[in-house]
Design goal:
Layout: H1 3-12, E1 25-35, E2 59-61, E3 67-71, H2 78-95, E4 100-101, H3 125-141, E5 151-156, H4 159-169, H5 175-193, H6 195-201, E6 206-208, E7 220-223, E8 226-228, H7 257-269, H8 273-278, E9 305-308, H9 317-324, E10 328-334, H10 346-361, H11 369-385, E11 392-395, E12 398-401, H12 402-424, H13 428-441, H14 447-458, H15 462-478, H16 484-507, H17 512-521
Antiparallel strand pairs: 1-3, 1-4, 1-5, 2-3, 5-10, 6-8, 7-8, 9-10, 11-12
Helix pairs in contact: 5-10, 6-11, 10-12, 10-13, 12-13
Length: 525
């Protein structure tokens, strides 16, 4: 562990600073497919009783009309974040009519690509823009890949904590620039160490055989309907998932925020020949992608972690980052654990807090050219064969056993966890850390190993296992209906969101082509 980490931990352990560690903020976004009673993709529209997918703050859709996304607010205690997520699930189940929320990350048996419904957001310009963007994703990557679900974990440190660290560093920059540079440092360390999260929390070692649509692959057959890799942790995050030659050169090594935003600006402004050949509209004049650039919008960039800033109405993410700097980070590589009703539990959340704080506080030099590639290679090796006995990764040009490196990282994260526990006055983070140490000592305890063990034990296909878990979780959520006042609050929010969508549609005065043109020009304003 670096001397800098020791120094910063000692600084934050001082009586005046220690309470700041309990003021970090957390938020969770959980995606899940709606399926029917037979475990097939739901073809029904987004339930009106859930409100408007365009304007509801907690319940929306991601790519498909059937791919729900639940969004919590932020809170200093992840217990409250998970409690809110649980409540959203309970409300949703109260309004689903004969449908269920698919339990794992990898999707149910999917219909033909043409029959996978793209999310609809109404007739407003902003709603149509969201739909056309998703049409572009279908054109560029296919619909099947867009039906994979995950969990996004949002995390930020309190402003006062950054001020303490900046004063200690003697950094003369503005508070905004210092904060942004330190979040970029966190991201660099995350790139170095995120393979550990895949080993500990990866939960997608198998998938429905139909998912690959007959494409060539290197997976093995577990049964007639299930493909897998014996040592995989997260096929969701492997090269079976999102990949596109247009994005091949988009691997920012996060030297600083300006270089990151410039690389994204270049991607959303530079035409890509294959997309130019397709055009923005089809032969009938219907929109099929927002533009022909490497990326249609910033969010099309598929990364394991993103620097984020809450945007104002009509503001694009790049504009917000340029104007006001990084506000929080979004971890995007987490699988949904099919053994957990919410897909994530408190132990995982607390470990993530310690892990991310470790990444923020430890020394984080810029990634050298070779280190960038090694970080990517280590990540991909772990998602495909992370539980293979004796597996070695690359660190500073040398091979190191995964278990050795994991143990060293957990030692450092343990020091952060101990300080977090001092701040909270309990042992919650140490307990979460102990759970992860046990997984490194015995890979059979990892979610990925447990999934494969369950498939072998039960003799079920992946989809039958997933549906069994889906029904079990449905019973969990429906066993305890929401209190009347909570239900009424959700119903009121649903009605309000529908009214907001209608108002947005009524307020449009610009034709859609002009709206898109203005949207494209907005980054240069």
């Amino acid at each position: 562990m670096s001397d800098l980490l020791s120094h910063r931990l000692a600084l934050l352990a001082e009586q005046t600073n220690l309470p700041l560690l309990s003021q970090c903020l957390h938020g969770i976004e959980r995606e899940c497919l709606r399926v029917d009673a037979h475990g097939q993709l739901a073809h029904s529209p987004h339930p009106r009783a859930l409100g408007s997918a365009l304007t509801h703050p907690q319940i929306t859709t991601d790519y498909s009309e059937a791919l729900l996304e639940f969004i919590t607010g932020t809170d200093q205690d992840p217990r409250n974040t998970l409690a809110e997520l649980e409540t959203i699930h309970r409300f949703t189940y109260a309004k689903l009519d004969g449908e269920f929320l698919w339990s794992p990350s990898m999707p149910c048996p999917l219909p033909d690509e043409a029959d996978i419904p793209i999310a609809e957001y109404g007739s407003s310009n902003v709603g149509r823009l969201k739909h056309v963007y998703r049409q572009g994703l279908a054109l560029r990557y296919g619909k099947t890949m867009q039906c994979i679900a995950g969990i996004h974990y949002n995390f930020s440190l309190p402003e006062q904590l950054w001020a303490v660290l900046q004063a200690d560093d003697g950094d003369p920059r503005s508070a905004q620039d210092y904060r942004s540079s330190r979040y970029i440092s966190l991201i660099r360390n995350f790139r170095r160490h995120s393979w550990l999260l895949m080993y500990l929390f990866g939960a997608s070692p198998a998938l429905d055989a139909g998912f690959l649509r007959g494409r060539a692959h290197q997976l093995e057959s577990l049964d007639e309907h299930t493909l897998y890799l014996p040592w995989a942790t997260s096929l969701r995050m492997s090269d079976l998932g999102y990949q596109n030659n247009a994005q091949a050169g988009l691997t920012p090594c996060y030297d600083d925020l300006p270089s990151y935003t410039e690389s994204l600006y270049h991607a959303v402004s530079t035409p890509y020949p294959e997309y130019v050949a397709l055009g923005t509209k089809d032969a009938a004049g219907n929109w099929q992608q927002l533009n022909t650039n490497v990326l249609q919008i910033e969010n099309e960039y598929y990364s394991n972690i993103r620097p984020k800033r809450v945007t104002a109405v009509g503001e694009r993410p790049l504009q917000a980052l340029r104007a006001r700097g990084i506000q929080y980070i979004e971890v995007r590589c987490l699988d949904i654990n099919p053994f957990l009703p919410l897909g994530i539990d408190l132990g995982e959340a607390r470990f993530l807090d310690a892990f991310l704080l470790f990444c923020a506080l430890d020394d984080s030099p810029c990634l050298a050219e070779g280190e960038c590639g090694a970080a990517t290679d280590n990540f991909l090796k772990v998602v495909k064969e992370g539980r293979r006995p004796g597996l070695e990764l690359r660190r500073r040009g040398e091979s190191v056993p995964l278990t050795v490196w994991a143990g060293e990282l957990l030692d450092g994260i343990g020091r952060v966890a101990a300080l977090l526990d001092r701040s909270h006055g309990d042992a919650r983070h140490a307990e979460a850390l102990a759970e992860q140490r046990a997984k490194v000592a015995d890979s059979r305890l990892t979610p990925s190993a447990r999934v494969l063990d369950e498939l072998r034990r039960s003799g079920e296909s992946f989809s039958r296992f997933a549906m069994r878990q889906t029904l079990r979780h449905a019973e969990h959520f429906r066993a305890k209906p929401l209190a009347a006042e909570v239900l009424a609050g959700f119903e009121a929010a649903a009605r309000q969101s529908l009214e907001q969508q209608a108002a947005t549609e009524a307020a449009d005065r610009l034709d859609f082509d002009s709206f898109v043109a203005d949207y494209q020009r907005s980054l240069d304003a």
